[in-house]
Amino acid sequence: MSFANVCSQFKGFDFDGFFNRIQPDDIIKVLGKPGLDRTDFLVMLSPAAEGVLEEMAQKAHRLTLQHFGRAMVLYTPLYLSNYCVNVCSYCGFNARNRMYRKTLTLDEVEAEARAIASTGLKHILVLTGESRRHVPVSYIAGCVRVLRRYFASIGIEVYPMEEEEYRVLIQAGVDSLTIYQETYDEEVYDRVHVKGPKKHYRYRLEAPERGCRAGMRAVNIGALLGLNDWRRDAFFTGLHAAYLQDRYPEVELSVSVPRLRPHLGNFPPLYPVLDKNLVQILLALRLFIPRLGLTLSTRERAELRDRLIPLGITRMSAGSCTKVGGYAIQDTGHGQFDIADTRNVAEIREALLGRGYDPVFKDWHPF
Amino acid sequence: MEDKLVLGGREIDNRLLLGTGKFPSKAIIPEVIKRSGSQVVTMALRRVDFDSQQENVLNYIPKGCILLPNTSGARNAEEAVRIARIARAAGCGDWVKIEVITDNKYLLPDNYETITATEILAREGFVVLPYMSPDLMVAKRLQDAGAAAVMPLGAPIGSNRGLKTRELIRILIDEIEVPIIVDAGIGKPSEAAEAMEMGAAAVLVNTAIATAGDPVLMAEAFSLAVKAGRQAYLAGPGLTREYAEASSPLTGFLREVQEA
Amino acid sequence: MLVVVNGREERLPEDLSLMDFIQSKGLAPESFVFMLNDRVLKWDELNGIILQENDRLEILRFVGGG
Asked: Residue B237: its chain A contacts at CB < 8 A?
C-alpha cells in the first residue's frame, strides 16, 4: 500500500461533473458536520464554496484556535546550494538556466547560521537543488552538524531520498522533512519536469512516507499551485496528508500552499490561483484535518499573509532569502524565486503581536 | 435501501447482536430472537456441572442465526484460543468473540491478551470479534491482526450505564476501518440509538434485554432503536447553519484588497 | 482405573465405553461437547471409545452468554 494506490482510486473520476452538482447548501450542510470525509473535503474545494467562504472561514478559525491557539511558529530557509541537474520548467534552479551556481562551504554555512541565529530564529529549513554530485547526503549531514549548534529544529527540503539516507540525516540532527509533489497529476508532472531524476513521479510521491518511516518528527508536503487545476491538486494534497496522518500518527504533519512566483526564466502559471482560491484551499484543508499544520512562506505578500493568519496558518517563514549565501556572504548564488514579503524577522514578530498572535521561535528541542 | 453490515463475508441486515446470558428462562430466548430480528447471537462454553443440570442454549437458538461463541472465562490469550478452537470443533462455525478478563472487580477486558488471541485466531481463519476497552492504538493493532470488527465497551459489562466511553468510541469510529460494534454497558434503547447515530456499525446487547421486566418487548424496542439510529446516521445531520460572527468578517479583505 | 473428568479424578470400572459413562451420568449426548485428551469428539464416535487409565475427559455445554 502506498499513497499511489489512493491516487489510482480516482483515475477517471469526473471532478468537473462532481463540482457542477454542488450547491451552496451542500457546503453549509458539510459545515454542520463534526468531521469531514473525503467527499466533504472535495465539496469544500468546489466552485460553489466560493460563495460561502466567510462561513468556512469562521469555522476554520475556531478550529485553529481550538487546536493551536494563537501561536505562530517562525522559521527561515537556508539555501546550501543551487546546483541542479533537473530541468523543471517552473523553477529558477533549472539546469538550463545560465546563472551563477554555488555550494556553501562549511565555514560559509556557519557564517549564515550565525547571521540567522542573531535574529532570534531557532527553526531552520535547509534547501538545495538536486545534484547528488555537488550536494551529496554526506555534505548535507555535515552542514546539519554545524547548524545543530545554532538551531533547535532543522528541516530539510532537498531531493527525495531513500529511507536509509533520511535516517542518516536524522542521526545528524534533522527532525523534519519538507517535500512537495509539485503536482499530483502524473501527465502534468511529466510535462513540467522536462529532464532529470525528478521525472520519477512515484519515487517523489512516496518520499514523505519514507521520511515518516525513517522517523522524521515532522513532515510537510504540498503542491506547487499554478501548475495544474488547483482544486484537484489541493484535494490530493489533503488526501496525502490524511493518508500519512492515519498511518504515522506519531508524525506532525503540515501542508504548504506555495503559489508559483516569478523567477529567472519566467514561467507564467498555467492555472492562475487567485487570492480567494488560496483562501479556499487553506480553509478546506483546515476543515478536513483540524490538527494539520499549515505553512505559509514569504512567497506571499505581507498584507495578504497578515490576513491569512487567522484562517488557519500555524507556521510562517520570516526574513527569508532564497539566494545561496544570502544572509551573510558577499559572493551569493542566484535565488530560486523572488520573495514577496520582504519584512525582517523583527517586523514580522511585531505584526504577529499586533494581531494578538504569539510568535514562537522555538517549540521543540531535540534530546 | 441496501444497507448491509458485512462481517466475515456474511451480509447482515439486523444490526442488533444479541447475548443469551441472564435470561429468567431459556424458554423465552426463541421469542426474544424472533422479535428482535437479531441474526448474530452469542453464547458461552462451560464445563458441565453434574449437580445442576441445565439445557444446552443452542437448542433455543433458531437455525439460520450466526453463532458467536464468546471466550468468557478465559484469563489469557492461550485460554481464549483454546475455547475458540473447541467451539469451532463443536460445530459452532468460525465466528468467535474474544473476551479475556482478568479483573474480577470491574470485569474490564485485558487488551493486551486480546490482541495476542486475535492474532492467533485470525491466522487460523476465525472471524474474530474482539471485545476491548476503547483505545485507539489497541484498536489499530486488532485491525492489523485481522479482526473482522472491533467491539469497544460502552461501560463495564452488565452495568447498564450507557455510553460512558462515547468520546473514545467516536474516535474509533473515525479512525478504524473495520466495523465498530459497541458491546457492553448499553442499558437503554436510546443509548443504542445514540451509538448507531454516531456511526457504530452495530451494538451487542444482553443484560439490558435479559433483565428487563418484559425481555421480549425490550428486545423489540432495542431493535427499533438500532434501526432508527442507523437510519439517522445514513440520513446525515440536518442543515444547521452556523452564522458568521458578523462583527469581524475574516474574508472581507478578498473584496477590498486588489489582486496581486 | 482413574479418569480425570472435568478436572476431577473419578474411579471408574475397567473397559467402560464413553457412551456408557455418559449415560450413567444421565446426559443426552447431543446437548454436550465431549473432549477426550484435548480432542473434540463427534457424537458418532462416542460408542466406539473405551476409556483408558489417565484419560482426560472434558464435558462442556453451551450456556447463555453475552
From this structure: 29, 32-33
